[in-house]
Structures are given as structure tokens and as C-alpha cells.
Amino acid sequence: xxxxxxxxxxxxxxxxxxxxxxxxxxxxxxxxxxxxxxxxxxxxxxxxxxxxxxxxxxxxxxxxxxxxxxxxxxxxxxxxxxxxxxxxxxxxxxxxxxxxxxxxxxxxxxxxxxxxxxxxxxxxxxxxxxxxxxxxxxxxxxxxxxxxxxxxxxxxxxxxx
Length: 161
Fold this sequence. Notes:
By secondary structure, this protein is an alpha+beta fold. Helices cover 15% and strands 33% of the residues. The chain contains 3 helices and 4 strands. The protein has helices at 25-28, 36-49, 52-57, and strands at 75-87, 90-101, 104-117, 120-133. It has a 4-stranded antiparallel β-sheet with strand order 1-2-3-4, with helices on one face. The two termini are 28 Å apart.
């Protein structure tokens, strides 16, 4: 007999190593992010889970798009925080998000700006660049598993019979 974990006990998609229930879910349910990095992680997780309302609510009204659709969003696979910091009510996060692109991999890298107003952090804007990933067999897998690419997602594709 296999025991299934409830969705809130699964590893958080943001890659923090915590469960979703202890990491991003409280923010998705209304808790205020304490740092720009915590907000960035919860926003990445919201992209993975399709939580459009959360993304809109945490986007600063001055730069928020009129409407937000995640229909064309890639199949996000992992998040790496490369740098983050805050000074007063301003914060920055430099991250790389990997995604599956057909039979390969891509990445979105962004230097994001955040602002805190009335005790709440908001995503303000970001400077992005995208590209293709071509991991070597012995490099870490872009999916974030911690395994080598050759032992994880290399050659994983549709099952044919």
C-alpha cells in the first residue's frame, strides 16, 4: 500500500527545501512576505501553480499589467536565487528560473526590483533575459532534483509503445 502525501506536504516548488505548507502556501493564503526573496519565491511558486490572483495582488499597482494570463507560461522546473538584498523599503532579487522547452531546456534570468509599502512587499519590475540551456551529462539536472542530468531527465520523453 502506498501512502500519498497531501499537496501541502510536498516539497515547495520554489526549491527552498521546505514543504509547500511551511514555505509559500502561507503567503498564498494571505501572510505577508518578510523579505523580497520570500516574495520572489512565492511568486515563482504561484507561476508554477497557476495562481494568477496572487501574482496580480503582489505586483505593485504602478507597474501591474491590466490583465495577466498564464496560458502561454512555460513548464517551470526549478528556481535558483543568485543574489538578493534589501535596503530600507527597496529590495532586489537576481534569480534564474529553468523551464522545459519541448525536448530541451530554457531559462529566464531576471534582476527584479521590489518595494515595501505599508509593511507589504510588492514586485515592481525586472530586467530579464532568456536563453536555451544545454546541460552536459554530468552537470546538475535543470529540473532541480540535485541529480546529474544523465541520471535524471536526459532522454526523458514521451513513452512510446
